[in-house]
Design brief:
heterodimer, A: about 1000 residues, alpha+beta, Ubiquitin-like (UB roll), FAD/NAD(P)-binding domain, 7 domains, 7-stranded mixed sheet, 6-stranded mixed sheet, 24 helices, about 20% helix, B: about 90 residues, mainly beta, Folate-binding fold, about 10% helix, globular
Chain lengths: ~1000, ~90
């Protein structure tokens, strides 16, 4: 294998375990422990992607979660792929196959890069300004091309075969981040005996200390890596701590509720991934939270600061120390602080040529710059990089001296050859989680960063995420604050060696020798927004940073501006002459780093997506070719097919049989509420529109329930089983909400009523048998009931027996036919159903589904709540005045029926519609007009709510709500459809058996 | 995302609860005697303030009891919970 950029020794990789992987189709090699980024760099590959808008070549810029450029697509099986993953976080494994994104035909030769030439005419807001009209082109032309041009990765086309998991976890102390601050906090917290959870997004702990130079940094005489290993071992031995690596906290919500995603198998070879859980979403509730999320290094903003081969200084140090990779052979460093000198020394000691350091400061008294001087590395003080050359890889930098006040560049331009430019603009505390939790930030004018000021939850921030820098400061703060936070008296002494550091100096935008507008200084690498875009937005009048952000899309890419959002703020602050503290930041929103849909949804996929409720007779329906309809969570038999029947034929046959022979329907899903107590009658009086006090024991009554706004809410038949005992039925979909509403009124408005409610929907199976032969069938099925009309009239109930099983039989009808409902304990449902089928065989009993039920009731003009009503329909609108008691002093919704609006005469009212052509079936939902125009808009006066072809009337029938409908009976109206207009006549809502004779047939 | 202390069951995750709007609105005993405006005031005009708000909550996936909570809507901090019919602790 050739890893020409692999250093001969060093790093935490396992050099005895070579791993092959593919990148853009080419087979390459790396070592166990490499990330895709470090392995690519070891192979000398910097160019990994093209930028979003201009398709400029982009290279690996960082070594972690903040990576803006190196987004790759991982190709798995056919149709299975993971887009937009950061190469800096992908641990390589045998079989890894990754490709670049947003380039065509290839990352090396990308046709889209022509956009770069047009960049002067694609400024911020380009799409808003350009694709304004005609609107008709949006859907098929503009949107298609914009989406094609602005793509990131490609979505998978097949179902995700991986397994994801959710886990709830409770702990006393959660520590986020296992850098030096997090490790010290954990070590200290364990002294309290509390249950601790420590998480870090990286596979290895120690944070940036992990790759610190061991000659300059020591804890208790130990080199950084040795101390980290020793500390981790100590922690692992403690039974009170749980440690999770590769676990990224995505969200920090109120009441210390945190969401985090743990990667379990992504780093394993394909063969070891099988049947294992890929990712686990942790939902953690912590009593106390210690944030030790560290800080993110800043770049520098200058002309052409985005070329491949320009990288963060700390990242280059990490690649050298952790992975044994040199990112270049001839290196320059551009910095405003001492930290970058540690990179210079590290590289120098590893035999890599560091040609020059360009430092914007006049001088530094730190130990590291001094050492660089001794090593003969040329330092250009008070200078800046103003331009870079090299298309697919940097090859030259231009530097000039800075004026005294840093606002200009002066003197001669110096060109320096290099193949790598390390940049370091200081560090920004990672306050994302802190602000997500509701914490407020403050701005430090001297140190140029936002830091946590006031937290609202039981939490602390320690280390560099709190704006504390330097190993000694970080460790002492982490220990002190944790001790105070958890009331711990023990204190450990730490002996820290670290280099003395000079003062950091900040320039948000490096001055240029070019005129403004001629530079390409990128602020957001991933979304390709430049300093010029920000300036343009400000010129065009955008003032709020939230507006500038959206107009320029700065900070809106998948990295959420982790790299350079601070610079955007800094530049806005300078241009508008506003203090940064007053300007504030844009909102930090979850997730901190992208998480997969798979992890979010966990196991709740396929049949587990939602609860499925099945009736006790479900198996029978299934065996008898039922097609099912979803009603809420219920599966209801929709229709049953015989032979080659389609739905229409089946429904016609079922509907005819129910009126001519006998029909049987599974009505078990109707909501059932058992109501008991001495005030039960009074309670029903208050919740239904009609009167209940005089309902005799053993009788049933239909009731309509309103909302307090007077609109129809639910309906159903309630039966008085005994003096103080009723059973209420509700609609299938309304069962739960009706129950809640009744409980609400009982507990809050009428606590004086002695009424007890029990939901018994699932306790009973309900078999409804209707049709002229229904009585004969029931007589065969039940043993001890006298079905004579005098003993068992319509709207009454009897207790009976089916063999030894108790049953309640109600003579009630939703079809208009003679009809009985048998209620039995749920587990007997199927056997009673089968008994009815057997008993009805000689009479041609026919099972019918919900569709035929809807048709049959439409023939009778019975409403379905939710079909004829939509929350804007009163009983008066439904022409059901007869059910609204005038005598009762009050019931829910009564007062609203007398509001000026509900009393309007021209409200939409319930009517029937008949088409001229009896074969023409209207479409449900179709709009109704009184006057037809050549084209829309037309004045719509109502809509069709139900429409069927009635096999019993041999014509089509429809129900509708129409403005002023009561007065339009016999009038002609129109239903305009895309290809024709259908004439309709307004009719009565009852199409069949107006006298109700069939109920006693 | 918050934790609510049901006065009957104790602290539970908010996913066990349902929100029930403004508390201490008493349904008029004689609605028919109210003008349209007075009725509309009761029916539709609910407060939605930034700051301390008195609300109804239902422990719907628990004891199913209704109770009241004083919640600061600006930070979701619940200052007190109390039973229906009781007054909030000031």
């Amino acid at each position: 294998m050739t890893n020409e950029y692999r250093l001969s020794s060093g790093g935490q990789i396992n050099r005895s375990e070579s791993i092959s992987f593919k990148f853009n189709g080419k087979t390459l090699y790396g070592y166990k422990g490499d990330t895709l980024a470090s392995a690519l760099l070891a192979n000398g590959i910097h160019l990994v992607g093209r930028s979003f808008k201009y398709h400029r070549p982009r290279g690996i810029f960082t070594s972690g979660v903040e990576e803006p450029n190196a987004l790759v697509q991982i190709i798995k099986d056919k149709g299975k792929t993971d887009p937009n993953l950061r190469a800096t976080q992908i641990e390589i494994y045998e079989g890894l196959n990754a490709t670049s994104q947003n380039s065509w035909p290839s990352v090396n030769f990308d046709l889209g890069s022509i956009n770069n030439l047009f960049s002067p005419i694609i400024p911020a807001g380009f799409y808003y300004k350009t694709f304004m009209w005609p609107a008709s082109l949006w859907e098929n032309v503009y949107e298609y091309f914009i989406r094609k041009a602005a793509g990131l990765g490609k979505s998978p086309t097949k179902k995700d075969p991986d397994i994801y998991d959710h886990c709830y976890y409770h702990c006393e102390v959660l520590i986020v981040g296992a850098g030096p601050a997090g490790l010290i906090a954990a070590k200290t917290a364990l002294n309290s005996g509390k249950k601790v959870l420590l998480v870090d997004e990286r596979p290895n702990f120690g944070g940036n200390l992990n790759f610190s130079n061991k000659d300059y940094n020591k804890i208790n005489e130990l080199a950084p890596l040795e101390w980290i290993k020793k500390t981790c071992l100590e922690l692992q031995k403690n039974k009170n701590i749980k440690i999770l690596s590769r676990t990224s906290v995505a969200a920090y919500h109120n009441y210390n509720y945190l969401i985090m995603m743990q990667n379990l198998t992504d780093h394993l070879p394909d063969k070891d991934k099988k049947e294992k859980i890929r990712q686990r979403l942790w939902k953690v509730r912590a009593k106390k939270v210690i944030l030790a999320t560290g800080s993110i290094e800043r770049p520098m903003i200058f002309d052409c600061n985005d070329r491949p081969g320009i990288m963060l200084s700390s990242a280059v140090r990490k690649y050298a120390n952790t992975y044994g990779v040199k990112c270049g052979d001839n290196i320059s460093i551009f910095t405003n602080n001492d930290d970058a000198y540690e990179t210079a020394i590290t590289l120098h000691n590893k035999g890599v040529k560091v040609k020059s350091v360009i430092d914007i400061r006049e001088k530094s008294d730190g130990a590291l710059p001094k050492k660089c001087n001794e090593l003969g590395i040329k330092i250009h003080w008070k200078s800046a990089v103003i331009y870079t050359e090299g298309y697919k890889k940097i090859n030259k930098i231009h530097i000039m001296s800075l004026s005294k006040d840093n606002t200009n560049v002066v003197g001669n331009k110096l060109k320096i050859d290099c193949d790598l430019l390390c940049v370091s603009g200081g560090y920004t505390p990672a306050v994302h989680l802190f602000t997500q939790s509701g914490g407020k930030l403050d701005y430090n004018e001297k140190k140029h960063y936002f830091f946590p000021k006031k937290n609202t939850l039981n939490q602390i921030s320690v280390g560099s995420c709190n704006g504390t820098f330097g190993l000694k400061n970080i460790i002492s703060e982490a220990q002190e604050k944790t001790r105070e936070f958890l009331n711990i008296s023990e204190a450990e002494q730490f002996n820290i060696l670290e280099p003395e550091r000079g003062v950091f100096e900040n320039i948000w935008l490096i001055p240029s020798n070019k005129i403004s507008g001629k530079t390409k200084s990128f602020v957001d690498y991933q979304n390709d927004s430049t300093v010029n875009d920000i300036k343009l937005a400000l010129r065009e009048g955008f003032k709020s940073i939230e507006h500038v952000k959206r107009y320029t899309t700065t900070g809106m890419a998948t990295d959420q501006g982790k790299i350079a959002n601070m610079h955007a703020l800094g530049i806005i602050s300078e241009i508008t002459n506003t203090k940064l503290g007053e300007l504030g930041t844009t909102t930090f929103r979850p997730p901190y780093s992208p998480i997969t849909f798979g992890a979010l949804v966990g196991r709740n996929v396929g049949q587990f997506f939602d609860i499925t409720r099945k009736t006790p007779m479900h198996d029978w329906h299934e065996k008898n070719n039922a097609k099912f309809e979803d009603v809420g969570q219920w599966k209801r038999a929709w229709y049953y097919t015989l032979g080659n029947e389609n739905m229409y034929d089946a429904v016609q046959r079922e509907s005819k049989a129910a009126r001519t022979k006998a029909g049987i329907l599974d009505a078990s899903t109707l909501g059932k509420i058992d109501i008991q107590g001495s005030d039960a009658s009074e309670f029903l009086n208050r919740v239904y529109t009609n009167a209940w006090s005089k309902l005799a024991i053993g009788k049933c009554r239909y009731g309509l329930m309103l909302n307090e706004d007077g609109m129809v809410y639910d309906d159903g038949v309630t039966t008085r089983l005994n003096e103080n005992h009723y059973i209420m039925t509700t609609t299938t979909g309304g069962a739960a909400t009706v129950m809640s509403k009744l409980e609400d009124f009982l507990q809050t408005e009428w606590p004086e009523l002695k009424v007890y409610l029990t939901s018994v929907t699932d306790h009973f199976a309900t078999v409804s048998v209707c049709g002229p032969h229904s009585k004969k069938i029931l007589e065969k099925v039940t043993q001890n009931i006298d079905y004579s009309d005098s003993n068992f009239p319509h709207m009454s109930f009897k207790n009976g027996l089916i063999d030894k099983i108790k049953c309640r039989v109600m003579r009630i009808s939703f079809t208009g036919e003679l009809s009985y409902e048998i209620n039995v304990q749920a587990n007997y449902g199927q056997s009673v159903w089968e008994k009815c089928m057997a008993a009805g065989k000689e009479y041609g009993i026919t099972p019918y589904g919900t569709e035929a039920m809807h048709l049959l009731r439409a023939e009778k003009g019975f409403i379905i709540v939710g079909q004829e009503t939509d929350g804007t329909v009163t009983p008066v609108d439904l022409q059901m005045d007869w059910i609204v008691s005038k005598k009762k002093y009050d019931f829910i919704g009564k007062r609203s029926l007398y509001r000026s609006d509900t009393m309007r005469e021209d409200r939409k009212q319930y009517v029937g519609l008949l088409t001229n052509d009896p074969k023409e079936i209207l479409e449900e939902g179709a709009q109704i007009v009184a006057e037809v125009k050549n084209k829309p808009p037309m004045n719509m006066i109502g809509h069709v709510t139900s429409s069927y072809y009635s096999p019993n009337l041999n014509k089509s029938i429809a129900l509708a709500v129409v403005k002023n409908g009561k007065k339009l009976k016999g009038k002609k109206l129109y239903v305009p459809m895309p290809n024709k207009t259908i004439e309709v006549i307004v009719s009565d809502t009852i199409f069949l058996d107006k006298e109700g004779k069939r109920l006693n047939a | 995302m918050f934790i609510i202390k049901c006065p009957y069951c104790g602290e539970r995750d908010h996913s066990e609860f349902n929100y029930g709007g403004e508390a201490h609105l008493v349904r008029p005993k004689q609605p028919t005697e109210l003008s349209d405006d007075q009725w509309a005031e009761y029916l539709f005009m609910k407060k939605n303030i930034k700051g301390l708000q008195y609300e109804r909550w239902n422990h719907s996936h628990g004891c199913r009891r209704w109770f009241n909570a004083a919640r600061d809507t600006s930070n979701d901090k619940i200052h007190s919970v109390y039973k229906i019919g009781e007054k909030p602790n000031k």
